[in-house]
From TrEMBL:
<dbReference type="InterPro" id="IPR009075">
    <property type="entry name" value="AcylCo_DH/oxidase_C"/>
</dbReference>
<dbReference type="GO" id="GO:0004361">
    <property type="term" value="F:glutaryl-CoA dehydrogenase activity"/>
</dbReference>
<feature type="domain" description="Acyl-CoA oxidase/dehydrogenase middle">
    <location>
        <begin position="132"/>
        <end position="230"/>
    </location>
</feature>
<protein>
    <recommendedName>
        <fullName>glutaryl-CoA dehydrogenase (ETF)</fullName>
        <ecNumber>1.3.8.6</ecNumber>
    </recommendedName>
</protein>
<comment type="similarity">
    <text>Belongs to the acyl-CoA dehydrogenase family.</text>
</comment>
<dbReference type="GO" id="GO:0005759">
    <property type="term" value="C:mitochondrial matrix"/>
</dbReference>
<feature type="domain" description="Acyl-CoA dehydrogenase/oxidase C-terminal">
    <location>
        <begin position="248"/>
        <end position="390"/>
    </location>
</feature>
<dbReference type="InterPro" id="IPR036250">
    <property type="entry name" value="AcylCo_DH-like_C"/>
</dbReference>
<dbReference type="GO" id="GO:0050660">
    <property type="term" value="F:flavin adenine dinucleotide binding"/>
</dbReference>
<dbReference type="Pfam" id="PF02770">
    <property type="entry name" value="Acyl-CoA_dh_M"/>
</dbReference>
<dbReference type="Pfam" id="PF00441">
    <property type="entry name" value="Acyl-CoA_dh_1"/>
</dbReference>
<dbReference type="GO" id="GO:0033539">
    <property type="term" value="P:fatty acid beta-oxidation using acyl-CoA dehydrogenase"/>
</dbReference>
<keyword id="KW-0285">Flavoprotein</keyword>
<dbReference type="InterPro" id="IPR009100">
    <property type="entry name" value="AcylCoA_DH/oxidase_NM_dom_sf"/>
</dbReference>
<keyword id="KW-0560">Oxidoreductase</keyword>
<keyword id="KW-0274">FAD</keyword>
<comment type="pathway">
    <text>Amino-acid metabolism; tryptophan metabolism.</text>
</comment>
Length: 397
């Protein structure tokens, strides 16, 4: 027999190409050497350093599945291995990258004009331009189809729209140069995508205040987008896509990235809990790892991480072969976020009182994973998407 590897119990590595393994190694090395040493302080200070995106850009980690425009053009699985490496350190760092890569660059690549692609993608791939994705509004989260943000013809500037409305809980918004905002075109009532460039906004039309004092995802920056007659040139609207298909298509890639990303956070928690349980001694000098209840917690978590990884790899392969359905993405996003959160909450118990100290990193993963279960479609919303596909009956309304 081969030797059992607790870090990769079902040998998922065996499914990766040599190129994918090399990309994963590069990403893991960068994340462990450059991100891990700064995450604790960043989380304490609720600080996100935008230089991180430039560093990722230098390594070709941004917009990695896009072909051309300065992007690496790798497989969806390779992209997922990058998110896994980043989220092994912190979900917030993965969030900043997902928004840049999947939601904004992915959206421009899928729906933008050639001119928009050439104008934005190469600079975004280098992390020199930062993106934000504005879909959620204060009154409309799970139900973005009811959004109130509106685009009207600009009253004084010919060839421009005027955007008004508010978006909230928007990753990267306070530091973003390019904001992909979804709003209803007044003329048709249909949702369209608009690229707002901060540098071109007259004073008082665009505000992006940060949302402070979060109790999760503190190493990423989150804010609002407040628009009061923002002038946006017609050339900055996505030309053809209308309706929720636009934002949801971007979400397919980002949700996929999360499904492998959260496995990184879970694997980090397993490794930390295993080490702790081998070192900590209770009752007659026995390590905690000696006890059956502790071993079961580790066995459950390792099993769920291994199954979750294999499922996500399968969906990634189908995605690249053009055989993916959005429901598959709902399934792996929901399952992997739920199982990562559930297991990490249990693993946290192994640390006893020390779990309360941030230096053990476990509490940070728990707080972050609650957010991953909530954004990009809360898990119950994905249950309803799957339930609709199984029964043919929609139960949202
Ligand atoms: P529904 O009738 O289901 O669909 C409306 C139109 O959209 C199309 N569509 C999709 N297209 C591509 N991919 C998908 N996954 C799609 N899902 C739906 C659909 O075919 C239809 O097209 P058409 O041409 O017929 O108009 O719409 P609904 O209003 O009933 O939607 C219900 C529901 C619950 C499925 C949807 O609203 C939903 O998924 N809600 C969750 C909201 C959400 O995910 N928000 C994410 C905000 S962004 C974010 O959280 C980023 S966090 C980033 C980070 O920091 O990492
Ligand atoms: P609600 O929609 O109010 O839902 C509250 C609860 O009710 C949930 O449990 C939900 O499942 C449940 N619920 C709602 N409707 C139903 C129903 N019909 N049946 C059963 N249960 C239901 N959004 C962006 O656009 N861009 C971003 O970059 C972004 N980044 C984020 C970063 C962070 C840190 C956070 C916390 C959120 C971010 N979001 C972003 C917003 C996120 O997508 C929303 O929070 C999420 O979609 C849920 O919406 P909501 O918070 O309004 O909750």
């Amino acid at each position: 027999y081969a030797t059992f590897n607790w870090e990769d119990p079902l040998n998922a590595n065996n499914l990766f190409t040599e190129e994918e393994q090399a990309i994963a190694e590069t990403a893991e090395r960068y994340c462990q050497e450059r991100l891990q040493p700064r995450v604790l302080q960043a989380y304490r200070d609720e600080h996100y350093d935008p230089k991180i995106l430039e560093e990722m850009g230098e390594l070709g980690l941004l917009g990695s599945s896009i072909k051309g425009y300065g992007c690496a053009g790798v497989s969806s699985v390779a992209g997922g291995l990058i998110t896994r490496a980043v989220e092994r350190v912190d979900s917030g760092y993965r969030s900043g990258m997902s928004v840049q890569s999947s939601l904004v660059m992915g959206g421009i690549h899928e729906f933008g004009t050639e001119e928009q692609k050439e104008r934005f993608l190469p600079e975004m791939a280098r992390g020199k331009l930062i993106g934000a994705f504005g879909l959620t509004e204060p009154n409309h989260g799970s139900d973005p189809g009811s959004m109130e943000s509106v685009a009207k013809p600009h009253p004084t500037k010919k060839g421009y729209f005027s955007l008004s409305g508010a978006k909230t809980w928007i990753t990267n918004s306070p530091i973003a140069d390019v904001l992909l905002v979804w709003a209803k075109l007044q003329e048709t009532g249909k949702i369209r995508g608009f690229l707002i460039e901060r540098k071109d906004c007259p004073p008082g039309t665009l505000e992006t205040p940060a949302i402070k004092d979060k109790n999760g995802l503190r190493a990423s920056i989150t804010g609002m987008i407040q628009m009061d007659g923002v002038p946006v040139p017609e050339a900055n609207m996505f030309p053809d896509v209308e309706g929720l298909k636009g934002p949801f298509s971007c979400l397919n890639s980002a949700r996929y990235g999360i499904s492998l990303g959260v496995m990184g956070a879970l694997e980090d928690a397993i490794a930390r809990a295993r080490t702790y349980s081998l070192e900590r001694k209770q009752f007659k000098g026995n390590p905690l790892a000696r006890y059956q209840l502790i071993q079961k917690k580790l066995a459950d978590a390792a099993t769920d991480a291994a199954y979750g990884t294999l499922a996500a790899v399968q969906v990634g392969r189908l995605k690249d072969e053009g055989k993916m359905t959005p429901e598959m993405i709902s399934m792996v996003k929901r399952q992997n976020c739920d199982s990562a959160l559930r297991n990490v909450r249990v693993l946290q118990e192994i640390f006893g009182g020390n779990a309360v100290s941030d230096e053990y990193h476990i509490g940070r993963h728990v707080a972050n994973l609650f957010v991953t279960q909530t954004y990009e479609g809360q898990s119950d919303i994905h249950s309803l998407i799957l339930g609709r596909a199984i029964t043919g009956i929609q139960a949202f309304v």
